[in-house]
Amino acid sequence: MNIPLLARRYCLLFYWLTFAVFTLHEAQYPGLMLHPEEWRYPWGAVVVVWAAILVGILYAILRPISFNRSWGRLLAALAYSAILLLLGHFSVVTDMPGYYYVFAQFSIVTMASVLLFAVFQAVSALWRWRRGAA
Q: The whole model's pTM is what?
């Protein structure tokens, strides 16, 4: 069993699954309502949020299975994360149901993750360059 290949293949699937479960949890909070006794669990909205968690596009940009220090793909992922962060920022308003905030939280975590990955790649490249120069 090739653990690094499995991690590359399924890491973004687990990332999406984490936010899918988080959406299920957050959907139980209805936000501000005039008649809270009429509240029903918003299954339709949960499915829409699952579709809005756009991990598939990130997967298509990075292509983790064949990713080998591809700076172009990494810059594209950073640009995509920045767009998600901007959309997430403008989507936040107060007193909305809990599932409404999941996209903004997803965009923040995605941007932070891609930035950390970029820093790791840069440090790794510098380390290899320095070891090769020594």
A: 0.83
Question: How many structural domains does the chain have?
Answer: 1
Q: Please tell me the distance from the alpha carbon of residue 134 to that of residue 123, in angstroms, as a whole number.
A: 16
**Could you tell me which residue, 133 or 1, shows the higher pLDDT?**
1
Q: CA 26 to CA 18: how far, in whole Å?
A: 12
Tokens of 56: 């598939």
pLDDT band for position 133 (cuts 50, 70, 90): low
DSSP state of 130: H
Round to whole Å and give the CA distance between 13 and 36. Answer: 35
Structural domain including 101 reads: 3-30+38-133
Long-range contacts of 84-91 (CB under 8 A, 24+ apart): 84/54, 84/110, 84/111, 85/110, 85/111
SS3 1: coil
pLDDT tens for each residue of 37-79: 888 999 998 988 888 778 888 888 888 877 777 888 889 999 9
- The encoded tokens of residue 9 equal 């293949």
Using alpha carbons, select from 132, 37, 46, 38 the residue that is nearest to residue 97. 46
